[in-house]
Specification:
Length: about 200
C-alpha cells in the first residue's frame, strides 16, 4: 500500500463515506483530533429521541448549513444529500471494506454499546441490531457502492480521494498524519488490499 507523503495536507473539509460498520465515525474523530478540525456526525443531526428521522426538506436545509461551514470532518452516507456535501468537500475518504468486516464490526459495536450511549448518536437513540439492519449492511456493496464511486468519479481534480479497502490502510493513513496539533474544535452545530489516492 502507498499513500501520498502528506495525505490530507491542508484539507479543511473532509468527507468520510462507507458502509455501516466500516468505521466512519471512529475515523472522523481520529482525523478531527489529528488535524484540529470540527467533527460532524450526521447521525446526530438526522435522528432525534426515539430514532425519529428529520423531515426531508428540513434535513436538506440542515445539511446545506453544515456543509457551508469553513472546516469539518463529516461522516455519514445519506445518499439524498451526498451531492451537497461533495460540492463542498476538498477531500473524500471512502472506507470500501469487505462486507463481512462491516458485519463483524456492527456485531462488536452492538456488544459494546447495547447498554451505553454511542458518542456519534443523539440522546434517546440506543444501539439496536436486527435482521433487517444486518441485511442492509450486507447489501451495501450491491445497493450503494457503485453509486458512491460514480459520485466520487465526478469530483474535480482539486479534491483528494482516498479509497481504503483494509483496516491496515486506515491505520497507515492515521500514522502518516501529524499527532493532534490542538484540541478538536466543537461540532459545527449543536443538537439534543488496494489503496487508491487522487489529489490535485
Amino acid at each position: 500500500m502507498s499513500l501520498a507523503v502528506e495525505p490530507l495536507r491542508r484539507r479543511r473539509r473532509i468527507l468520510v463515506l462507507g458502509c455501516s460498520g466500516a468505521g466512519k465515525s471512529t475515523l472522523a474523530r481520529q482525523l478531527g483530533d489529528r488535524l484540529a478540525l470540527p467533527v460532524v456526525h450526521l447521525d446526530i443531526y438526522y435522528w432525534s429521541f426515539g430514532w425519529k428521522p428529520t423531515p426531508e426538506a428540513e434535513w436538506q436545509e440542515r445539511v446545506g448549513r453544515l456543509a457551508a461551514a469553513d472546516a469539518w470532518v463529516m461522516d455519514g452516507n445519506y445518499s439524498a444529500s451526498l451531492e451537497t456535501r461533495l460540492k463542498r468537500c476538498d477531500a473524500v475518504v471512502f472506507l470500501d471494506l469487505p462486507r463481512w468486516v462491516c458485519i463483524l464490526s456492527v456485531l462488536r459495536r452492538w456488544c459494546r454499546y447495547r447498554f451505553a450511549a454511542r458518542p456519534d448518536l443523539p440522546e434517546g437513540c440506543p444501539e439496536k441490531l436486527d435482521l433487517e439492519f444486518l441485511r442492509w449492511v450486507w447489501s451495501f456493496q450491491r445497493r450503494s457502492r457503485q453509486k458512491v464511486l460514480d459520485a466520487i468519479e465526478r469530483l474535480g481534480p482539486g479534491v483528494e480521494v482516498l479509497q481504503l479497502t483494509q483496516r491496515s490502510q486506515t491505520r497507515a493513513l492515521l500514522e502518516a498524519l501529524p499527532g493532534s496539533i490542538g484540541a478538536r474544535q466543537p461540532m459545527v452545530e449543536k443538537r439534543g488490499a488496494d489503496c487508491r489516492g487522487r489529489s490535485g
